[in-house]
Write a structure and sequence with these properties.
By secondary structure, the chain is an alpha/beta fold. It folds into two domains: about 150 residues, no CATH class; about 130 residues, no CATH class. Helices cover about 40% and strands about 15% of the residues. The radius of gyration is 23 Å and the shape is elongated.
Length: about 280
């Protein structure tokens, strides 16, 4: 039994695949005996032997035969690029999209399925990435759909509030890490405005400066203030003077266009689940 422990990055996941083939560890183990773990999800085995960090340097398999081996995988961009290029060459653009979308789910079981799927593709000459009879193919495809659904909902339900500095700000906490996926949408739609979308669950955000989108991280106190600001509560960072008026106008518009007699709460919740209501001004 061998456990690969990576840093949670996409490059780190690809480096796990590189390690398995570079050291032929996959070939000498039966199915299910090579496990992939993100650092935050990993729990050491009782009889495990840690092999320390492994990077791009060539090391022999000196530790064969142990009951359990824990190998820390250090991300290496060159190795990751080799794996990704080879994977894309053997599949198609739809597969690479599904692979990346599934990775953004941040689910421990999905990381394992992605590893098994990549190995399944590399171990066959034929195009097997669309063989839904394989558990990893089916699981990754289903997870990619879930992430894609969350992406579309974030694009639809994000509500910005203008600060006194002229920056449009929004706080989100999606089920999956969809910030990298929604950035192009908001860059196109609000190309003439400064905006910042902050993921309070993952503690980072994206800031658009009218030219490029940059990843930003806020300190704990700043994060708290900005979140309070986005929810129209008292904070050290104030909203634009007219923001409260615009917020009320939107609520009035929503109320005036609503037809009480045709209210269907069950259908409404299906289309707009309750966990998204906190983003919508008309629900607060």
């Amino acid at each position: 039994m061998i456990s690969y422990i990576f840093d949670g990055s996409f490059a780190g996941l690809l480096c796990c695949i590189f390690r398995a083939y570079a050291f032929k560890e996959k070939q000498r183990l039966k199915n299910g005996q090579l496990r992939i773990y993100c650092e935050k999800d990993f729990q050491p085995e009782l009889f495990a032997q840690s092999l320390g960090a492994w990077g791009s340097d060539e090391r022999g398999l000196e530790e064969q035969g142990r009951l359990a081996e824990e190998i820390t995988i250090i991300s290496n961009d060159a190795n990751a690029k080799r794996v990704w290029t080879a994977l894309c060459q053997k599949t198609n653009s739809n597969f690479s999209r599904q692979f990346y979308f599934s990775y953004l789910s941040e689910q421990a079981t999905t990381f394992q399925h992605l590893f098994e799927l990549a190995c399944y593709v590399f171990d066959h000459q034929d195009a097997v990435h669309a063989n839904y009879g394989h558990p990893a193919v089916l699981s990754v495809t289903q997870m990619a759909k879930s992430v894609s659904r969350e992406k579309h909902r974030m694009e639809a339900f994000v509500r910005f509030k203008k600060t006194s500095e002229g920056i449009y700000f929004a706080v989100i906490s999606p089920d999956f890490n969809v910030l990298p996926l929604i950035a192009p949408h908001f860059k196109r739609r609000y190309a003439d405005q400064h905006w910042l979308i902050y993921d309070e669950k993952r503690h980072y955000g994206l800031f658009y400066d009218l030219k490029q989108v940059h990843e930003v991280r806020l300190s704990s106190e700043a994060n708290k203030s900005m979140i309070e600001q986005a929810r129209l509560t008292t904070s050290s960072i104030t909203l634009d003077a007219q923001e409260a008026l615009y917020d009320q106008l939107w609520k009035d518009y929503f109320k005036s266009t609503n037809i009480v007699e045709r209210k269907n709460l069950k259908l409404h919740i299906q289309q707009v689940p309750r966990r998204y209501w906190k983003y919508l001004s008309e629900k607060n």
